[in-house]
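For the sake of transparency, this paper describes our internal protein records without simplification. Such a record has a labelled line for the sequence and another for the backbone structure tokens. Nothing more is needed to write down the fold, since each code stands for a local backbone conformation. For reference, a complete record is included directly beneath this paragraph.
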Amino acid sequence: MKDKKTVKGFFIALLCCLFFAGCSGSGKITGSELYAESVGIDYEDGGFVCTVQVFDPDTGAVTYQEQQESMTTVIGAAGDSVAGALSQIPQKLSRRVFYSQNKVIVLGQSALSVPEQSLDFFLRDWESGLNTRLMIADGDAATIINADFGGVVNPSERLRLAAEGERTGGSSGICTLLDIVKASADDTLGLAIPVMRLQNRGEDNEHLECVSSLLFAGLRPVGELTAEQSQTLLMLRNRASSVEISLGGTEQTAVELTKIKTVTDVSVEYADEGPAVICRLDISAKGAVTQSASHAEIDRIGSLITAQLEKRARQTAESAAKYGCDLFKIAQRLRYADKNYYRAVRKNWKGELSRVRFVIRADCVITKTGDKTLRM
């Protein structure tokens, strides 16, 4: 009787092996790990297409050419969700893929129709770092992730620099997953995510150019800044190492400003016509002119630069406020400056933001080689 039970159990186990194959059709996961360096997300036909650039630290490559050819791989997968698409990549590579080192997430234009679904996986995944940068592709995200930027060893590092405003002529500055988390919890916060276009100046000379910045109130797209306004915003948020300012008018001369710092202050002014929120932006910067310039020329240039700086700052700040995008944390600052007034306008903050009065003051220090410093 015992033998019959044993044989019966054997045949049941054999049938289970035949009809319930489990993971027998998938790739074998090895012990060596891969690390995602950048992820592109596109939305097609009701599903998601994810393109991932992975880094392999165990190739044994020694020379630059070997590293270029073997250390990074780009692979794509599709699924009903971002999580579903990404789950297929380890099977395709037969390696585990970790996202703790991911530098950049690129959203394609198609993914902007479902921004919350596009970012949900990374906001919930414990591996994803909250300092991961975000950018938007002027087209498909896959195109940017597949760019090798002339064969550099780590193309994703170029993407990170682009997301921070370097190598692009300026962007709206850093937008991270942490900013997304904060904006999803507080709808008064505004976000500006750079929109990047892949350009090619010649053979093997790909680069990214910031063409605009998409503005978000919470997680809703509400408007867009131009490329020049994006560069100005970078400066106003203290994220620009340098900014080139044109003298304006018919003059072609431009001066590069460095050591830029903006101090933001918010207050409420009470007058007979009613209270008004005032946002003061005090900008300081340094610039240099050629040694041959006279003091009168330096004075003229300084005045023109200051006027252009104040004009650009005002246009950028007022454009963002018009769209209901609080990029300067005015609501948070108002909460501490005048708590009672903040409580009164909190429910209609978008309307209140459009009425904020910006007071812009620029202080440019112009220097000349071999001469003293002149303040304008």
